Amino acid sequence: MNLYTDPKRDHLWQQLCDLPYFRALLRAIEARFYDDLPIAAPVLDLGSGDGLFAQQTFTRPLDVGIDPFYSPTFGKIYRDGYKALSTAEGAHMPFANDSFQTIISNSVLEHIPDIEPVIAECYRVLKPGGYLLFCSPSDHFADWFVGATVLGDGYRNWFNKIARHHHCDGPEAWGKRLAKYGLTVERAWYYFSPRALRILELGHFLGVPNLLSKIVLGQWVLWPSKQNPTLRLLHRWLSPVYNEPLPKQGACVFVVARKPL
Q1: Pairwise CA distance, residues 123 & 182, whole Å
Q2: 50 assigned to some structural domain
Q3: d(Cα 171, Cα 254) in Å, to the nearest integer?
Q4: pLDDT of 137-190, one tens digit each?
Q5: Closest C-alpha to 47, from 101, 98, 112, 100
Q6: Max Cα–Cα distance, the chain, nearest Å
Q7: Mean pLDDT over each residue of the chain, to the nearest integer
Q8: Within a domain: 55
Q9: The domain containing residue 200 runs over which residues?
């Protein structure tokens, strides 16, 4: 446990109130991991996006969120999750050496084609003994798609393309990549079971109403209330998957890496 999270928080319900159900399931599982991770200030959120994940997950603002795409056209920015926001590339962070005790990067690194300069920058701005906490699709991400049983690798490649995945790697590959720049993996685990992945896959097709709502009205979920019977039904349906034990192999991987003292 750390000062930034609340283990009693129902992450699944909170995510369902703001996101399409398939994304809510994935983000809720990830959010719960942070309850038991070493998060200490100052904290940098690398690839903070619209800031919603930080605002939903953490009980206090993180020190800095950094993203290259803040702009008037980006959409609503949830600023309450941060003390400050910075617009910059991960490969060129505007911070001094040894600035942060913790870097969080939730489902971001897989979208960066040239990832090694970003890892080098993470090492540079981390304090000695500081942690890099991140997650991404794993080397098993496309293994269990229903559509792939009919359409094969073409479907898998299409899905990764629309998801903008440039890296789908397992713990061993990440360990080698991080070690090249001086970071040591302390822990890594798979998560998101085959059943969870198929829910994610199906949601990309059933989530069209949420997408239209976002485009027209600016929000994914129109009635984020305990009185909403659809949200209650979704919560009941997804709770067993949310509470699944970690699989031996999963569609995603979480990594806890550290800069040596």
Answers
A1: 7
A2: yes
A3: 8
A4: 999 999 999 999 999 999 999 999 999 999 999 999 999 999 999 999 999 999
A5: 112
A6: 51
A7: 95
A8: yes
A9: 11-258
Contacts of 57 (CB under 8 A, 6+ apart): 5, 11, 31, 34
Take residue 95 and report the two structure tokens written for it. Answer: 């911070």
Average pLDDT over residues 42-70: 95
> Any idea how long the chain is?
261
d(CA 33, CA 22): 18
* CATH code of 86's domain: 3.40.50.150
Closest C-alpha to 220, from 203, 237, 233, 236? 203
> Cβ distance 85 to 65 under 8 Å?
yes
Q: Is 4 inside a domain boundary?
A: no
Tokens of 159: 């899905």
Residues whose CB is less than 8 angstroms from the CB of residue 145 and which lie 6 or more positions away in sequence, other chains included: 155, 156, 159, 197, 198, 201
**Total tally of structural domains belonging to the chain:** 1
H-helix segments, 60-190: 116-125, 148-151, 153-162, 171-179
Its pTM stands at 0.95
d(CA 2, CA 17) in angstroms, rounded, equals: 25
pLDDT of residue 78: 87
What is the Cα 218 distance to its own chain's centre? 21
The C-alpha atoms of residue 3 and residue 63 are separated, in whole angstroms, by: 13
Q: Is residue 2 part of a domain?
A: no
